[in-house]
Design brief:
By secondary structure, the chain is mainly alpha-helical. The protein contains 2 helices and no strands. Bound molecules: zinc ion. Zinc ion binds near residues 59 and 61.
Length: about 70
């Protein structure tokens, strides 16, 4: 799938944030805080998917023809 620069920016931003969260949840491994972090990571991933999907719907540059819906 061909995507534009802004798509990559949005994805990288979210992935960086998710990476931080995963790192933090590993620090808390075995503690209750780890569970909370895991929940935050999951919702951050959902948020990323939503942001990317809404970008694809609006962006004239991204080639969405090959997108699986
Ligand atoms: Zn785009």
């Amino acid at each position: 799938m061909k995507t534009c620069r802004q798509f990559s920016n949005v994805r990288e931003e979210h992935e960086r944030e998710i990476g931080f969260m995963i790192g933090r949840s590993k620090q808390h491994e075995g503690k209750p805080a780890a569970k909370a972090s895991a929940v935050r990571v999951r919702s951050a991933k959902e948020q990323m998917a939503r942001a990317l999907n809404s970008h694809l719907r609006r962006c004239p540059e991204c080639d969405t023809r090959s997108r699986r819906s």
